[in-house]
Amino acid sequence: AEVAMACLAVDPAILLVMVGVLTFLITFCGCVGSLRENICLLQTFSVCLTIVFLLQLAAGVLGFVFSDKVSKIINGAIMHYWDDLDLQNLTDFEQKEFSCCRGVSYKDWSQNIYFNCTATNPSQELCSVPFSCCLPDATEAVINTMCGQGMQAMSYLEASAFIYTNGCIDKLINWIHSNLFLLGGIALGLAVPQLVGILLAQILINQIRDQIKLQLYTQQHRADTCY
User: Fold this and answer.
1) Is residue 146 part of a domain?
2) Is 102 helix (H, G, I), strand (E, B) or coil?
3) Taking burial as the number of CB atoms within 10 A of a residue's CB, which of 95, 145, 170, 212 is the most buried?
4) For the ranges 6-10, 73-77, 120-124, 164-168, which has the lowest average pLDDT?
5) Taken in order 36, 39, 40, 41, is the CA torsion positive or negative?
6) Cα Rg of the chain (Å, integer)
7) What letter does residue 100 receive in the DSSP assignment?
8) Residue 44 covered by a domain
9) pLDDT the model gives residue 5
10) Residue 125 in contact with residue 114, Cβ under 8 Å?
C-alpha cells in the first residue's frame, strides 16, 4: 500500500485524472442541482466544494510545516524517473527551470537503479545524471542527452563545470519565499470562486426552501378557506 501511494504521489497523469474526475462530479452536482432546483444535489455541491477548499488550505499549511515530506516525494520521483514519461518530463522541466539537480545534490540520482553508482550496476548510465542537470551550452544546436555521463563520480568542484550541483529543495524553498505574493494571489484567485460558489449554493437552497414553504402555506390556506 505504501509503494502504491508513493507511485500515486509522483505520477502527474494519475493526479490530473483524479482532479479532473473530482471537478466533473462537483460541477455536475452544482449544474444539475441548480437547473432542477434539487436541494440534495446543491447540498452535495456545497459540501464537496467546502471540503476541497479546506483540503487546499490544509495542503498549503502542511507543505510549509512538513517540508521533509517534499524530500520524500522528490526521492520517489528519482526512483521512478524512467518508469513514467510524464514524471520524467516534469522532473526535467523542474531541473532546467530551477537550475538544480534533484533533492539535496546531484548525487541523489544514485537512488535510481539505472544511475546507481555501484560497481555491480550494468547500466550504461552508471554514475550519470539526466541531461536536464547539465549546464546549457549555447554552441550546441542539438541537445546532448549524454552530457551527464559519469558526473556522480566527480567531486562537486569538478562536476560544477558541467552540471548543476545544487539540489532542487533549497532552490524551490528560495523560490517560494521570493514569490509569496504571487502564490498568495494565485491561492486567493482559486479560493474566491469556491467561496462564491458555496455562498450562491446556500442562497439558492434557502430560496428553494422558502418557495416550498410558501407553496405548502398556500395549499393549506386554500384548504382552510374551503371550510
Assistant:
1) no
2) coil
3) 95
4) 6-10
5) positive
6) 27
7) -
8) yes
9) 46
10) yes
- How far is CA 147 from each of CA 118, 119, 130, 142, 168, rounded to the nearest angstrom? 20, 21, 8, 12, 19
Question: For 136-180, how does the pLDDT look when each residue is reduced to its tens digit (9 = 90+)?
Answer: 887 877 888 889 999 999 999 999 999 999 888 888 878 877 887
8 A C-beta contact, residue 118 and residue 83: no
- pLDDT tens-digit readout, 17-44: 888 898 899 899 999 988 888 999 999 9
Print the domain residue range for 79. 1-83+179-207
What are the Cα distances from residue 121, in Å, to 23, 68, 110, 125, 128? Answer: 44, 29, 11, 9, 12
Residue 131: CB atoms within 10 A of its CB come to: 17
- When divided into structural domains, the chain yields a total of 1
Place of cell 488550505: 57
Residue 49 domain-assigned (yes or no): yes
- For the full predicted model, state whether its pTM sits above 0.85: no
Three-state secondary structure of 104-152: CEHHHHHHCCCCCCCCCCCCCCCCCCCHHHECCCCCCCCCCCCCCCCHH
Q: How far apart are CA 58 and CA 26, in angstroms?
A: 20
pLDDT digits (tens, 9 = 90+) for 51-84: 888 887 777 666 665 555 666 777 778 888 888 8
